[in-house]
Amino acid sequence: MPVLTVDGVGSFEIPAGKKLVLALEDEAKIDQLHACGGNARCTTCRVEFLAGEPETKTPGEAAVLAAKNVTGVRLSCQILCDHDMTVKVISRLAGSGRVDAGKRPSDTL
Ligand code: FES
Fold first, then answer.
1. pLDDT at 26
2. Which atom of ligand 1 is least distant from the CA of 75?
3. Which one of 14, 24, 53, 107 counts the least CB within 10 Å of its CB?
4. What letters, b where the CB count within 10 A reaches 16 and e where it falls short, cover 85-106?
5. What is the pLDDT of residue 98?
6. How far is the CA of 11 from the centre of ligand 1 (A)?
7. Which residues contact 52 (CB under 8 A, 6 or more apart)?
8. Residues with CB under 6 A from ligand 1
9. What is the mean pLDDT of residues 91-99?
10. Average pLDDT, whole number, for the chain?
11. What pLDDT digit, counting tens, does each position of 29-66 carry?
């Protein structure tokens, strides 16, 4: 199983192919935001990669990052845990002022 390391939190074995946003919630117990429900629209699911950044983006991720002129981050709702990776969590419910993290994203891309 791939290992997800969350900077300052720990390392977690993740079922292969699980969405990164769901792994952050379920295995790492992070209050990760995902305001649009994992539909590549809001960018609140953003994370910074410290290692193992995927080389490719889904068309949705590429489009919304370009449209919002956001660089240096990736969208955890558009990435599958199919290899070891290390991320820094930068967009959490705590301190966001939001009432909830957003609708749970679907299990598949
Ligand atoms: S872009 Fe909205 S949850 Fe990922």
1. 98
2. 4
3. 107
4. bbbebebebeeeeeeebbeebe
5. 97
6. 23
7. 83, 84, 85, 86
8. 34-36, 38-45, 75, 77
9. 97
10. 98
11. 999 999 999 999 999 999 999 999 999 999 999 999 99
What is the 35 CA–ligand 1 centroid distance (Å)? 6
- Which burial class, exposed, middle or buried, applies to 58 when counting CB atoms under 10 A from its CB (0-12, 13-18, 19+)? middle
Pocket test for ligand 1, best of 24, 32, 34, 58 (most atoms within 8 A of CB): 34
CA of 14 to the centre of ligand 1 (A): 20
Answer whether 0.90 is exceeded by the pTM: yes
User: Distances from the Cα of 68 to the Cαs of 33, 59, 64, in angstroms?
Assistant: 17, 14, 6
